[in-house]
Amino acid sequence: SQQGEEDPQALSIQEGENATMNCSYKTSINNLQWYRQNSGRGLVHLILIRSNEREKHSGRLRVTLDTSKKSSSLLITASRAADTASYFCATEFYTDKLIFGTGTRLQVFP
Amino acid sequence: DGGITQSPKYLFRKEGQNVTLSCEQNLNHDAMYWYRQDPGQGLRLIYYSQIVNDFQKGDIAEGYSVSREKKESFPLTVTSAQKNPTAFYLCASSSGVRTGTSYGYTFGSGTRLTVV
After folding, report:
1. A59 to chain B, minimum CA–CA distance in Å?
2. Could you read off the pLDDT of A75-87 as tens digits, one per residue?
3. Which of A51, B4, B38, B79 could form a disulfide with B25 if both were Cys (CB 3.0 to 4.6 A apart)?
4. How far, in Å, are B14, B31, B110, B111 from residue B5 at the CA level?
5. Which of A42, A97, A103 shows the shortest C-beta gap to B110?
6. Residue B66: which of B89, B88, B86, B84 has the closest Cα?
7. Which helix (H) or strand (E) holds B99?
8. pLDDT range class, residue B83, cuts 50, 70, 90
9. pLDDT tens across B33-74, in order?
């Protein structure tokens, strides 16, 4: 079963623009994580936000979490062509088992 | 450098054969995981292990088997009972179980399995 649903499924923007991806999930969580996957490669951990946190920043990344709505968003500011990848949210329960969403494919045009 | 190594990168299997995918980590992580990814889709959990000599089924364990005899190694066998094994397989590890705090997973670079 997949816990999260990302929206949109695909996103195309120009370099320099901001990219926003949303994630909704179904049940209570311990934390929510965002990962990036370049085509045909493994996943890279970007950022983790705990259930008692509402916002977190890391470089050009900003993540928000709304546990009342069971949703999260990932904002990438000033996008670059190198940001082109698929982005996944994943939720972790207290059993330390990550459940992934369906992903957003981001294309950044130079 | 610490990390996770998956091998081989590409693997071809004939109908009715069992194949084993290797996953080795030198991060001293207690927990290891196997995920399957189909084209254009998210990751689905096959098996996971939080401690040596113990493992649990994930959402799609049928047709797969694992072992965890060493902390560093978590091989996955795709058996002939798996009817649709063509997919991208990803191994991951984490330290969260023992510390009680999660810092995210570290992933290998994946094995692409194709049935021929």
Report:
1. 17
2. 999 999 999 999 9
3. B4
4. 24, 15, 9, 10
5. A42
6. B89
7. helix B96-99
8. confident
9. 999 999 878 899 999 999 999 999 999 999 999 999 999 999
